[in-house]
Amino acid sequence: METQPWFKLIPQEQMIKWRRYFHAHPELSFKENKTSKEITQILASFDQITITHPTPTSVLGTIKGAYPGKKILLRADIDALPVKEETGLDFASQNDGVMHACGHDTHTAILLATTKVLTQLRSQLHGTVQVIFQHAEEQVPGGAKEIVASGQLHNLDAVIGLHIMTGLKAGTVNIVTDGPVTTGADAFDLTIQGKGSHGSMPQEGIDPITVGTEIINQLHTITSRFTPPKDLNVVTVGKFHSGVAVNVLPDTATIGGSVRTIDEDTRQAIANRIKKIVKNTCDTYGASYQLDYQFAYAAVINDPKIASLVKRCALKVLPKEMVPAGTMMSASEDFSAYGKLAPLCFFLLGGGTEEEGYPYSNHSPKFIIAEDALLNGVKTEVESVLEFLS
Ligand SMILES: [Zn+2]
Ligand SMILES: [Zn+2]
C-alpha cells in the first residue's frame, strides 16, 4: 500500500455529512426529486463539471480531463426502499415508511467525494470521467435501463460501480476479477382460470388448486432436471393464492415466482420451460391462464481486464488484508444494464460484520453500516480512474 498525495483531497467529514443528510431524507424509486436536486447542487459547487439529467431524477456529471483519452463512467444508485426504519440512529429517516435500507445513501456520498477529488485532479487526466447518480435501482424495470436508453452516454470504455454490504468486514473491497458478481433476476405472475363448483361435485368444475400444485411441482424440476449442475440458478415460487371456503372449489388461483440465473442462455431456457409447463398443464385440465413473464435484471458479469485493474488499484491504496478474494452475491442489480455500453466492474464494499457490531443485512429495518468503510470506496474509485486514464 502506498499513500497517495491526493488522499488529502478526500472530503472525509463532508462525505459523512452528505451521507447522513441522504439517510435522513430517503425517497422511493422514480421519486428521487429532492435527492437529485441536492446532488445537483453539490456537484454544481465543484469546479469544472458539466451537469445534465438523462431522466427526471437522475444526475450525470462530466469532467473533461486536460488531455484527450479514454472515457470512464462511475455509477451510484440513489433510491431508498419502502421500509419503516427501526435503527434508532439520530439521523434516521424523516420520511415515514421510507428508508435507505440498502446503503444507496452511502453510494451517493462516496461518489460525490470521488467526484470532488477528481475535479481537483483534472489537470492530470487523459480522457473523460462521467459520474451517474442513478435513480430507481430497487424497482423493476430499474433506472439503469432508462439511462442507457436515454442515449446520453456515448463511447464509454469502462463502467465501475460498487455496493456496500453488511456481512463483509468493514472497509474491505471485494472484487470478482472474472465472471458473474450478481445473479440476474426475472419474475413471473400466473393466473389460472378454472371453473368453480360445489366442493362435493368436483366433476362439475375445473379445480385451479390442483392445476396450480401440478405446475409448482414441475417448476421445481427445472433446476434439478433441465439445467447442468454447475450452472447456478434458482426457481422460487413465493406466492400461491386460491380459495376461501372448505366446501367450494374456487374459480382461479394465482402463482408468482422469481428466477435467478447467471447465464443468458439458461435464462432464456428457463423462461421457455416455465411457459411450456404452464401451457401443457393447463391444457391437460382444460383450464385457461394468463402468464406475465418479466425479464428484469441480467446478471452483472465483470470484465477480467477492468476488474483486474480495479483490484490492482485497491491493492495499491489499501492494506492487503482489506482486499480479500471477491465473492459473488446472490442478490441482483440493474447495474448489468450498463454492460450494453462498455465492459464492467462491480465490486462489494464491506459495511461491517456481526462480530464488528453490524448484524443486520441490507433491506432490514435495522440495517446499519460502518461509516468508516466509505473512505476505502473513494480511494478505490479515484485510483482506478487515475490508472485507467493515465
Ligand atoms: Zn437493495
Ligand atoms: Zn442496493
TrEMBL record:
Residues 184-283 form the Peptidase M20 dimerisation domain. NCBIfam families: amidohydrolases. It comes from the Bacteria. Gene3D superfamilies: 3.30.70.360, Zn peptidases. Coiled coil: none annotated. PANTHER family: METALLOPEPTIDASE, PUTATIVE (AFU_ORTHOLOGUE AFUA_6G09600)-RELATED (PTHR11014:SF63), PEPTIDASE M20 FAMILY MEMBER (PTHR11014). This is Amidohydrolase. InterPro entries: Amidohydrolase, Bact_exopeptidase_dim_dom, Peptidase_M20, Peptidase_M20_dimer.
